[in-house]
């Protein structure tokens, strides 16, 4: 399934930064960032090769790392929006459970 909710034309490093800051905590990012960047880039390289392109010429790994560093702040900022939606959805659910426990249990 492809989710097009936040489709946009942007640098792929931004997408990775957004995804990692939305789905992981700081400790895990520090611990695994280099590994995850390499996994992403290796997959990107494979996909480009399947399409007939040379990823090293098209988007070298070192350029990707610079872009990731440059776009990390924006990815983090966008992830805060997702966090707010998730937080307030959970908060609303908790409030509904407290105010209308029978309605929530019935579904």
Task: Describe this protein's structure.
The protein has helices at 12-23, 26-50, 55-58, 61-99, 101-106. The two termini are 27 Å apart. It has 107 residues and is mostly helical. It has a domain at 12-78. Helix 1 packs parallel to helix 4. It contains 5 helices and no strands.
Please outline what is shown here.
This protein has 107 residues and is mainly α. The chain has helices at 12-23, 26-50, 55-58, 61-99, 101-106.
Characteristic key phrases:
107 residues; mainly alpha
Write the layout of secondary structure elements.
Layout lengths: L11 H12 L2 H25 L4 H4 L2 H39 L1 H6 L1
Helix pairs in contact: 1-4
Rounded radius of gyration (Å): 19 Å
The helix-strand sequence is HHHHH
Which residues sit in consecutive blocks of at least 5 with pLDDT less than 50?
84-92, 95-107
Distance between the termini: 27 Å
What level of helicity do the residues show?
Answer: over 70%
The overall pLDDT average reads: 74
Estimate what percentage of residues fall within beta strands.
under 5%
């Amino acid at each position: 399934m492809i989710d097009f909710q936040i489709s946009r034309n942007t640098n792929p490093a931004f997408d990775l930064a957004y995804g990692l800051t939305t789905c992981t905590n700081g400790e895990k990012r520090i611990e695994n960032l280099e590994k995850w960047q390499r996994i992403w880039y290796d997959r990107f390289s494979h996909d480009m090769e399947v399409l007939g392109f040379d990823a090293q010429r098209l988007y070298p790994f070192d350029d990707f790392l610079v872009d990731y560093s440059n776009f990390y702040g924006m990815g983090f900022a966008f992830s805060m929006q997702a966090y707010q939606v998730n937080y307030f959805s959970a908060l609303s659910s908790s409030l509904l459970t407290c105010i209308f426990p029978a309605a929530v249990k019935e579904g």
